[in-house]
Each structure stands twice: as structure tokens, then as C-alpha cells.
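Annex B, item 7. Sequence and C-alpha cells for protein A, then protein B.
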Amino acid sequence: MSDEDCQSTVSILSSILIHHAESPHWPDLIQHLKDVTSSHALQANQITSKRKLKNMKIESEDYRDGIIIKMINLISPFDQHLTWIDVYKQRAGVQDIFPEHIIASIPKSHHDVDVTKLYNQKGIYTFTIDSFGTRDMDDGITILSFDESKIRLGVHITNVSSLFLENITSSQDLLNHDLFKQAVERVTSIYIPGAESSLENTSSPNMKVIPMMPVEISEQLYSLVEGQVRPCVTYEFTIHKDGTFEFHGISLTHAVMEHNLSYDHVDSILNQKEFDHPSAGKLVDFNFWKVLSDCCKALEIKRLENGAIEFDNQSDLKVYKDCNDVISLSVSERRLFSSSTIITELAILVNSVSGEFITKNKVPCMYKYQPPYELKEPWAHSDPLHRKFLKITDVRFANGSAGVSADPQGNSVVGVPYYVQQTSPLRRLFDLLVQIQLVHYLKVKECLFTFNEMDHYAKLITSEGQRKMNVEQNTMDHLLVVYLNQCLQKGVHNHHVVFKGYDDDHHTCKLRLVDLNQYHITGTVNGGLKGDKVKILKKLKNIQVKIVEADPFSHSIMVEFP
């Protein structure tokens, strides 16, 4: 095959791979792929015996596309090797690099800052809490005063709106802002293992960030970096140990973070453990930490009393990949961190009071809503293994699913009457739009966006946001299968899964990894099953089966029953 023919074939296959049925080449190839798949399915289904089910192959919907990737790599030059991660990014329209003229337009520093009126100067201590190595820091805290029963503090959200609102008098002016157009196109920052990007997030050796805004903004000029003056939207509260609070208002401020702390730093302080930090002695001497933790825990308890859902500890999976593409996994329990509760509860508090302020003043906005719910089965299940596998997807909602809307609605899962998002304006378009609308209103008592404009953005975020976020989840699922395949090649057979049953109508079943309980593999039993085999499968609920084969291209799994 000539180079020209190879290039043409790769172009056709890539079009089918990325665009599926929307590709003009789809009808020409789909029948051939169906024939290949059917032949493969017939062979795989013959693995099982007549009376006793031993092995079973479960194929994901990626089987056909896996064949196409193999074909493309077979005829492409070595330096044009295609991966599933490339495919995920192309399907979602993810762009790694910003145009040069946009980078050139970013200001080098903040101006009109009165350093004699910094918010943190009236407080005890100002800091951030994030995962180790985080660079796009959106939120910080200033401790103002405290006693044994309460704490007064300011919650700072970096004021990214100040970058856009200068010389802006209408929403149309904003639509002509090149950087704003980029944020609308990208919708969210994406954090994916193994993706090519201009920046590496050191919180995980292979976690790459494809930011919603250039790193010159998200990780430098507007990130709450310690020692640097930053414009902020500041929310001031007094929080009591009984879970009640007073909201003292919203103000536009400037503040300097004294330290960027990690969750581990704060948990070590709370648990009186030694930790590595240049100012460890000073941090330990502050005696507000326990009051802060207790008050935030009380906020959580109060929300639960208002109907919020309490989630069990969930595993946080990190993927590590070395220079030889060998994958290893690290699992930790996220919700065990007291510091995580501090950040979560303060974020919910800010978002809920923002929602109430915006609704009260009839400012068009977007709400993260969740209708009242009913549990599919009792939440407090007696079997700890069953509780471990329980997820939010196991909750049945009586009046519809969650979403984003311009209509003021409550959020029953969080347990608050109104809930907007504006605590991560560096990372999410939702938060940025809410902050721009809020800050503009605080300044001139007028609304920049109309209800119809907010409704348009709510629909955009719902559709495009999910498409972008699928890149993260799909990449994790793919690397999980690659990891299992590498383990099997090494002769490691200790990776078991829980078989969640068989759907006779669609021949589907779900495998959930025991050690990584929030990750599951759902697929179709190859070729379907009949007779006694179906009866056997329907009786199998939550039993452990062993993985004997994992295909990183087709994402199919062969399992062995006990």
C-alpha cells in the first residue's frame, strides 16, 4: 500500500472512529465490522459448557472501535500511534493549546491594589487547603476570631470576573472577549491521566491538566498562591458548634494567602501528628483548628437533618504510569479527612448563601438542582460489603434527575433550598458565569445576563460539560483495563470482580472491582446466552469471579466463575 493510500485509509477510519454514524464513510465499513464481530462472538460463546458456566466474555460497546484503532496503528507510521485517550479527546473537541494572541493579551499583574487594606490584615491567619501539588487554587480562608463555641471567618473565592468586567457594559461586550469565548468553548478544566498537555499536575505523577483558561491565569495570575496579592470575592460567616451560622455579607476584597496547605498538613495538625512543612511549628501553635473542624462537621450534621444524603467513605483512585507505560494504582479513602469536610462544608455554605442572595434579589442565574428523592433501598444497610458498593446511582429520585437550570430550584441531595456553583471559577464555566453576574450586580446593582442568556448557558453546560467530563471517566476506565491486562501478563491473578447479575433482555451484566468499588465495567455477554446458562447467570448475585483476560483495545473482559 502506498503512503497516499495509507493516509487516505487512516483518514476514513479516523472519521468513523470519531464521528460514528455521522461520518460519511460509516455505511461503507459498518457491515464488514459487524461480520467480524459476529464471527468473534460465535467463537467466544462456545467457551462455556452445556450445563456449567465456567468462563464468560463480556464486551463493552468499544469492541468495534478497538478494531478500528488497531487497523489505524497497523498502517500508520510509528510516530503517529493512536491511543484511546486521543480518541476520547477528539470526540469531545478538547484542545490542549490556547491561541498565541490570547496568551499575549493576558495582563502580567493586578493593578489598583491598596496593600494597606488587605482583608487578611484584620485576621489571625489566611490559607488555602488543597490536594498536594495543586496549582489552580480557587478558594482560601481567613480566620478572624474564635472561642470554644464558634468561629468567625472569611471564605475567599478568587475574583476571576475582574479579568472580564473591565470596560464591559453589556453581555454582548463579553461575547466579543476572546478569553471568554475560549472558556465557553472549553466549559471545564479536564484532569486526565496520560493525556498530552502543556502542564503536569504534580498531585499525581501522570495527572495532566487541560485547563479551561490558560495556566498564566489559572495557575499564576488568579491562583491563590501564597505570598501574592489576589482579588477575591469574600463571604464572611460566624459558624457555631451547633451547626447554625450567621452570614455577614459578600464583599470585593484583596487578600494574601500566608500558606498553601495540603489536606495532609491540616489532618496532621488535627490528629497531632508530625508533618513536613517549613512553618510546622507556627501552624501547630494556632489553636483554632479543632474549633474550625468541629463547626464544619456541625454544618454537615445540620444539612443531614434537612434531608441531605450522607455518603460512605469513597475510594480515591490515582493512576501512576512510568516511562515504559507500566501502570500502578493507589487507593485512599477520601472522606476520612477532617480537612476535606472543612473545604466541602464551606463550599456548600458559600454556594447556598449565594443562591439565596441571588434569588432574593431576582438576579438571573443558574442553579444546580436536585428534586426530592426516594431511596431505592434502605441506605443504612446491615451488610458492610453491600454498603461499600452503594453509590449515588443506586438512589431513585421521585421527581426527576439532577441538572442545571435558570429556574430557582432546591437541591435535596445537598440539603439546601438554593444551590449555585461559584467556588471554582478557574475550572468551571458554571462558576465563572455565576461570579461574573454576581460581581457585576454587587458593583452596579444591575444584571449583566438576562434570564434567557442564563438558560442558554445552563443547557450548554449540561450537554457540553458532560461530554468534556466523559474524557476523564473514559480515560480512567480505559487505564483500568490496561492495568488489569498488564497484571495478567505478569502472572498476577489476584484481581477479582463482583458479578452484579445478568439482564436477559439486553444480555448485559456489570462487573465491579472489589478493591476499587466505585469503578465498574458494564458490557454485553458475547452473542447472548440461552437455556440453562441464562438460568445460572440470573441466580448469580454479588459473587466474586476471577479475571482471566482483559483486552485494552476492545475493553472486553473474560471472567472465570468459581
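Protein B:
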Amino acid sequence: MYTLDITTQAKKDIAYLKKNGGKAVTNKIEKLLVELIEHPKTGTEQVEQLKGNRQGNGQEE
């Protein structure tokens, strides 16, 4: 199992969407976060490995 580091801004955005987005949006967010933690390299959507020298750390080069 993996861990998921969520930035302060992402936490604020998620809280906003949960408050204003309704039940469907809340369910999608929760499903996505659980999926990222359980199996980030596979998934229900089209998963593609990063190209080049990218490490997947979320930082722009």
C-alpha cells in the first residue's frame, strides 16, 4: 500500500468541493483518493507511465 501526500491547497480544494459539489462529486473524490492509495500504477481509467526523466513527484521542472 502507498501513502498519499496531500498539500494544504489540495485539502482546501477537496473541502470546498465536498461542501459545494454534492454527493456525486464527494463520492468521486473519495473513490479517486482510495484508488491512488491502493494501486497508483493501475486504475480504472487510462493509466500511462510518465515519459522522460520525470519522477512523478508533482514538481514542475
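Comment on protein B: Residues 5 and 57 are 10 Å apart (CA to CA).
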